[in-house]
Amino acid sequence: MGYSSLAACVADLEQNGHLVRIKEEVDPYLEMAAIHMRVYDVKGPALFFERIKGSKYPAVSNLFGTLDRSRFMFRDSLDHVKKLVDVKMNPMSVLKKPLSYVGSSMTALGALPWKKRTNAPILYGQTTISELPQVVNWPMDGGAFVTMPQVYSEDVTQPGIMHANLGMYRIQLSGNDYIPDKEIGLHYQLHRGIGVHQTKANALGKPLKVSIFVGGPPSHPLSAVMPLPEGLSEMIFAGALGNRRFRYFYDEEGFCISADADFVITGTVYPNENKPEGPFGDHIGYYSLTHPFPLMKVHKVYHRKNPIWSFTVVGRPPQEDTSFGALIHEITGAAIPQEINGLHAVHAVDAAGVHPLLFAIGSERYTPYQKTERPQELLTIANQILGKNQLSLAKYLFIASYADDPALDIHDVPGFLSHMLERIDWTRDVHFQTNTTIDTLDYTGDGLNAGSKVVFAAVGTPQYQLVKELPAGINLPQPFVHAKIALPGIMVVDGAGFTNYEQEAGIIEQWTKQISNDQLRGIRLIIIADDAGFTADTDDNLVWVAFTRSNPAYDIYGVDSFTQFKHWGCLGPLIIDARTKPHHAPALIKDPAVERRIDRLGEKGASLHGII
Q1: Report field, pTM of the whole predicted structure over 0.85
Q2: Is the pLDDT of residue 348 over 70?
């Protein structure tokens, strides 16, 4: 739909049964987030918070909470936008089927940003940072954060909206050492467009002008998280998806202003001026800790008449950003595979916190004249995946051959892992990258942004039969004696509290020498965990624990392991030590008292009766 504002979207959703108003006063400190998560978990409606303690502005969340609701919001434009993205990826498709793209071409032409200041709704009034809803999601968060921002910056060497970047980077509004109403924190990670802009500004000794848009038509925040093909502007995409050109202008100080936003915060980032930002409960399921990040000095806070604050909750998947991901996949389809020759599919596993774990399927085309008996092209494809934008932040990459099973599904976690474990040769098919970069939010490495990666590649027919139950009479030596089967071929064992790598490496190596390989027949992967019962309970728990609590180069061991000509491998099962380490960030835990307080909203006569 061509929504002119967030309010128009809210009205449309409410009229069609996709939104519920919460009339009771709620506390932005933990309560709003807890309500959001409770409703998201049951695939409930979007939420409009009418009365927020400490703020005169209402708020909305869970707009993108289900794929069906997202499709409803963009029901008039989604198909055209899919074709627009396809054209950017594959222009030959236009030549092959020109009539199929007529409507999409008109959509693109009508989506060019429109510089328009006259009667811009955003100029209705101004406010301060402290008057905004101070939403805090998790008990240990360092302050209130903007969790659904659209952060706008321009290239100082190529100014103008067509070379601008619109991204979703978290903004800390309060806490730490920020001067209230004058300073806020700007957190962005590796491989983000704004980083290129700040680097160029720093080199010239210039401040970087930044505008933070909140609210506006729903196509705007979605455009800020889209992995768009190079050359396709986020503002054009927002106009195409929203059936309404992105309206903007520059204020007297030279800041770009989104005319249709509900709020716009303008400010400057000066070279080498940082302040501690965080902690913050993040999408891997842990807190990102306090680190120096760019300091943004606030200039103005604009708002439209009757503005609506937009927010979401970030935490262990699935959350609303999971649903964002489903919509992005629907729009982009096979975008990344088209950019890497031989790649059929790649999937960042949401349950594992997205960045830690990738599943991929590729072709083996190098030697069609002989039977493929070991990964060849798969390794070339793997290197390209780990060099591609945010995919380069992954720690674990499992890659399979398309020819071995054309029906293999990268979204089927148990099925994909079983396919790999039936085929992979641990003596040959484990390939490490050490002392490299990982996600800023991942604390399993040996420093911020620092860690290791591993590629597991498998081709050929099944070579191993996987057990689905613990082998009869299994008798594991101390100290890892309690075991459960999580998935076929995957055994989880309880481990005592982790001390340090020097001591634990010796313990694990000694344990592997005492294991009888005969007892482990059909077990290909062993996970050492703090709680085997929890880890083995669900597929989501398994991948979350195994891949968010381990650093490949440090935490992978093996039964009968060896190093030959710089290559590591093992004859028996591979082992991942996924216990919590002293340097890891704390896991996110909900506040029980807050959970009990929000039960009131589900009582008879309350706003969420019948929903929670």
Answers
A1: yes
A2: yes
